[in-house]
Amino acid sequence: xxxxxxxxxxxxxxxxxxxxxxxxxxxxxxxxxxxxxxxxxxxxxxxxxxxxxxxxxxxxxxxxxxxxxxxxxxxxxxxxxxxx
Length: 84
Description:
This protein is mainly α and 84 residues long. The protein contains five helices and no strands. The protein is 54% helix and 0% strand. It starts with a helix and ends in a 12-residue tail after the last helix. The mean pLDDT is 86.
């Protein structure tokens, strides 16, 4: 993901049904069975919302002053379980 982001690629934002299939294969090479009609609807919905999904991607991955878990974790002095 970091390598893709460094190249300006947003693998989680799909623009075509082919992108959708490639993204899912990238996320999980052994994708569990999903019935065809559900998979098609899912892909169509994501392609139809590419502008919204791109804006969400930009907000999530923009630099901000809000510290991340990675920033905070080293300074925690109590036992902590972080579940990702």
